[in-house]
Fold this protein.
Amino acid sequence: MSESPEATAVQTAAPDAPRGRRGRRSADVPALVAGAREGDARSVARLISLVEDASPALREVAAALAPHTGNAQVLGLTGSPGVGKSTTTTALVRALRNSGKRVGVLAVDPSSPFSGGALLGDRVRMQDHAGDSGVYIRSMASRGHLGGLSWATPQALRVLDAAGCDVVLIETVGVGQSELEIASLADTTLVLVAPGMGDGIQAAKAGILEVADLFVVNKADRDGADQTVRDLRYMQSLGGRHSEPGHWRPPIVKTVASRETDNGIDEVLAKIEGHREWLESSGEGHARRAERAAREIEAIAMASLRERIGDVHGSAALASLADRVVAGQTDPYRAADEVLDRL
Ligand SMILES: Nc1nc2c(ncn2[C@@H]2O[C@H](COP(=O)(O)OP(=O)(O)O)[C@@H](O)[C@H]2O)c(=O)[nH]1
Ligand SMILES: [Mg+2]
């Protein structure tokens, strides 16, 4: 699944290309981590590549990063293609840079190895910020290793976190199930909708009402923005987690992300800040991070288990157990227990 020509194209276009197998094996992890912490973009890019490629060095990478993580605020942006996620990301990066923050951007396509083109298009647009050493931008396409992006994205986040990013934005390409998973990595998830796209209803269908911490009605320069806001309010009024006392009720902000000024982005940032304060005061922020870490550990453990069970397949031990099951000397459940006992 991972080695399509398109995926390779994205990889080749990654900021630290070219890199060969030999380079991968000889990664000097402590030097790379030190470089990343000093703001060296190539070190950051290289570390993300190690993570993405599931390099043999990645245990060492994870261990070296751990003491330097936990500071970045993670913002997720999700919504239908064309709604304005990349434009909004660019506007947010600009505003955050103006207030002196260091920013990381991960543009993630979890569902398809074939969308490299679109991601690269975004990269080009983000060239706005090329040459600004306070911004790291990285596209990640789908990879088959170790559970794919459900595993790789949090590691890439760690790299940016350790590199001193105050804020990391994760932009996903769509609103499918895997995008929701990515959204759940964020401290604050922005769900973008636009007038006239039937987005409100789609959002409800995709279960996105449950993940939204903030609704952004983008393209508010178009007809129907107020109706979209009303639709969202109506859907919120129907209940859900956020309507219980003490819970966060996602605000709805109108934006025109394509404008340089008077675009609503300041209000988006103010609502994000409000949410950050609520996360802290309610304890929900810690709970979310712990839940995130738990799922990460689970994903790694499951991947490792699957790999080891894969080793069992075709082994002499399995063949002999199979013979015993066929001969009626044991039953498949007991045989399976034996397989697990050996791991
Ligand atoms: N009229 C209008 N167009 C916008 C606005 N924001 C983005 N666009 C345009 O909508 C298109 C899709 O935007 P993009 O950011 O690539 O959407 P994405 O697929 O969600 O990342 C682009 O042509 C943008 O210039 C806006 O607020 N108003
Ligand atoms: Mg985009």
